[in-house]
Amino acid sequence: MRAVSLLLVLSSFAEAVSVGQRRKVVQSCNVHRDKSSDTTPLQVGNGNFAFGADVTGLQTFKPYAIMSTWGWHNFSLPTTPGQTSVDDFTGVQLWTHGRLVTYEIPNPAQNDISNWLRENPHRLNLARVGFDFGCDNVTEDQLQHRFQELDIWTGKLSSYFAYNGHPVRVETWADPDSDTVAVSINSNLLRKGLGLFFDFPYPDNEKFNAPFVGHFNLTSRHSTVLERLSRRSARIRHTLQNTTYYTHVSWSGHGTVTGPAEGSHRYLFTSPQTNIQLTITFAPSATNPHPTSYRRVTSASRSWCGTFWTTGAFIDLTSVRDDPRARALQQRIFLSQYLTAVNSASAYPPQESGLVNNGWYGKFHLEMTLWHALPFARWNRFPLLWRSIPDTYTRLLPSVRARARMQGYAGARWGKMMAPLSAAPGGPSAPGDINALLIWQQPHPLYFAETEWRAFPNRTTLERWDEVITATADFMASYAWWNATTGVYDLGPPMYPVSENTDANGTRNPTFELAYWRFGLDVAARWKERQGKPAPREWVRVRDGLAPLPMVDGTYAVYEGIEGMWTSNATTNDHPAMAGIYGLLPPPASGEPLDMDALKKTAGKIKELWALDYSYGWDFSMLAMNSLRLGDPDQAVEYLLHPIFQFDDAGYPVGGSRVPTPYFPNSASLLIATAMMAGGWDGSEGITGHWPKSWENHVRVEGFTPAL
Ligand SMILES: *[C@@H]1O[C@H](CO)[C@@H](O)[C@H](O)[C@H]1NC(C)=O
Ligand SMILES: *[C@@H]1O[C@H](CO)[C@@H](O)[C@H](O)[C@H]1NC(C)=O
Ligand SMILES: *[C@@H]1O[C@H](CO)[C@@H](O)[C@H](O)[C@H]1NC(C)=O
Ligand SMILES: *[C@@H]1O[C@H](CO)[C@@H](O)[C@H](O)[C@H]1NC(C)=O
Ligand SMILES: *[C@@H]1O[C@H](CO)[C@@H](O)[C@H](O)[C@H]1NC(C)=O
Ligand SMILES: *[C@@H]1O[C@H](CO)[C@@H](O)[C@H](O)[C@H]1NC(C)=O
Ligand SMILES: *[C@@H]1O[C@H](CO)[C@@H](O)[C@H](O)[C@H]1NC(C)=O
Ligand SMILES: *[C@@H]1O[C@H](CO)[C@@H](O)[C@H](O)[C@H]1NC(C)=O
């Protein structure tokens, strides 16, 4: 039995998927639309820059965003006495194991500066570019024969429509190497008054800006200036308080930019030709940092996308013919790969909504970083991982060390919600109750490092991560608190576990965090041993003395002493993180082994009692991974296709009742779970197949390594 299943696994690994077959599979997931969506654009982009288009290939009817990793803005600081500078923020002190510790929680006496710090800086929507139909007030319904294809194999968005019987053909591309969108327009309407407009919004201070970002009617709060540079180029300077950036426009042949129209920041490009090609580059500098041409952008995009799809891991489910779930999963897998490359492969961790719109002011969350970035490693696309990891951690070290020091701990305490250092140098993480008391982001660097080590077990890897690992583990060891009564190390209180819905003052020893602390300290100790150094005694002592994983009625509980586990609906909602100890995390390398019966019983109770209709994000992928390790791939597929775990026609992860759309941790987690199905995990050889039984002989995969 064992030999047979091994052979099956080996044969599916051995057969290479040809470039032609890869192309066929990828393009079978291309997106087609004949009208604009009310909630999501079609995007071209490169991870650090993206352009969201409506059905016209531009932003004619729907002002979807153009966003970047560098475009940020601050509103003016408050003028309230005593709250006029970020240094005035004091935070709040909470009793923590017999001493007062300062947390970055808003002090009720300092609402103005606390709110300012949460809302600033916020990410900018750089502009809107759309068709101008001259004096006609045209609506989308008046366009005929609308048709659009996003070719994810090349990064080309082709759009077609007709107006008054005249066809208009548009191609939209993004440059992989700069913040440039390249557009080609072919239509004799260009000679009859069809033009392109450029408009510039002003941000608002809402936590969520979805589906659209910014306002186009607050024109007096910001300014724009047009400069015509040559017969074929112009630039528009946009100034919003301390933020200034430039839109560099170049075109082929004849054309001219005029404006702004009275009382607006709207400029118009017109051309007497029937065929025009433009490049539009956004940059913080007045000199275009990357002058390029339409032709160069198209060939760079083909080449970047081509490399993306022909290297890295691959899953081909097209031969699974008797189960429609395979087709649905295939579509999700490929569109998720495209969308995470466009939105999440950035120079620092992406926000939950990527470059589509703003969630949490455009800031990122360090506890979500593992989901966002791990797929690039698991799908063997390390260069995309390395854009942000480990640099994000290395660069933040001074400020997170300072936080730990201020709180009386050793090492570095990773924060939660923040803007990149380039937009808020040295700034604290956004103030908040949950932000300050969440801890499961802490071991993430250790997960990344261990994953990277498997692919690159060399000295460079060891050295690159060593400082971050040491500071991370030092904090973990000093944060755990020796409880003399029980004779174990406790985590919390006060703290929030993964499910942010508990009483922070009463939350002690959550299951997932305990398991993750052990995992992290194990990795950290091994890291030292690999360098021929002893693991610090403190790490080992804390690891070996951690409180046991709390149990209720033979199941793993959310946290120790939780009341009403499985009998109250207050405890069976939000993230079922207990499933993560045998889903996201491998079984422990030290201490007591996991109780397999308890794991199975916990998974069963979650399926039966959890408020899955209110679950969101990566819950379903984590439950799927738990099902995989428990030997139930059918249940894993059920979770990955759960009706609440939705993706729209273009592959965007639907936010659902809790968060706006898109919510990219869903896409990323789906890729992590499917990488596990395809590549297995340590010790998984003994389990027969990681796919539903009827798929096994038809699935083709390559390029995966086993998960931790
Ligand atoms: C804008 O810049 C000035 C001068 O550098 C600085 O004093 C001020 O704090 C900045 N304002 C904001 C809101 O960033
Ligand atoms: C254009 O048409 C839309 C939709 O019919 C309408 O709401 C809008 O007021 C019109 N604008 C002008 C300037 O006529
Ligand atoms: C300005 O635009 C926003 C949408 O961005 C709209 O909600 C608001 O009503 C507009 N305000 C005015 C005064 O037109
Ligand atoms: C926003 O304000 C913070 C704090 O004053 C400052 O460090 C940062 O550079 C500002 N960012 C922008 C984009 O103006
Ligand atoms: C060592 O690992 C790094 C990644 O940490 C990788 O870039 C490099 O190519 C590896 N070197 C060798 C000699 O394998
Ligand atoms: C020690 O642990 C027990 C059991 O979790 C808990 O009830 C008690 O409050 C802890 N002691 C202190 C001083 O926190
Ligand atoms: C925890 O208790 C402190 C008082 O010690 C209180 O100020 C704080 O609001 C409580 N926090 C939560 C989340 O209940
Ligand atoms: C729990 O059940 C009560 C009573 O049925 C209901 O009012 C409440 O909304 C439920 N809470 C959750 C979180 O589902």
Automatic annotation (TrEMBL):
Q: What is this protein identified as?
A: Six-hairpin glycosidase-like protein
The alphabetized list of GO BP terms reads:
carbohydrate metabolic process
Tell me the keywords, alphabetical order. Answer: Signal
The terms under GO molecular function for this entry are: catalytic activity
Q: Which organism is it from?
A: Thermothelomyces thermophilus (strain ATCC 42464 / BCRC 31852 / DSM 1799)
Name the domain of life: Eukaryota
Q: Which InterPro entries match?
A: 6-hairpin_glycosidase_sf, 6hp_glycosidase-like_sf
Question: Signal peptide location in the record?
Answer: 1-16
